[in-house]
Request: fold
Amino acid sequence: MDPSELKKLRNKQRKAKKKAELEKLSQQQAQAKKEMHNKANSKKNDEELDSPAKDELVPEKLARVEDPLGEALKFLQPLQQLASACIVTHILAFEIYFRKGNHSYSVNLEKQFIDNNCVMVIFQPNRFSCCKASNGQ
Reply:
């Protein structure tokens, strides 16, 4: 064989080898994607089996909360962090803690209201005096 023909043959073999490697790599990637997809589908199926049945999601049952003040506190804590400058947030906090029976926190809020000349203290002095009497002040 002529040296130029040998060179062409080697180039063809080299190209064929590279093409085979690329094909093998793309097949491996496709297989990996397929496995990931199958895993994701199996997880979704497992979650669907674990989730409660549709008939258990009755709105009246969900609306009745066993501990409404506890749920209100869960809502209040991030609200206090995000809207701490708003006096309405503190008024709501006072209401929740007062109804829950945590009068020491209510008294602290009351002191803030008095310091800021809050309208609530002016229009509802009886509520605050009850808070002071129950706390022993």
Remarks:
- The two ends are 111 Å apart (CA to CA).
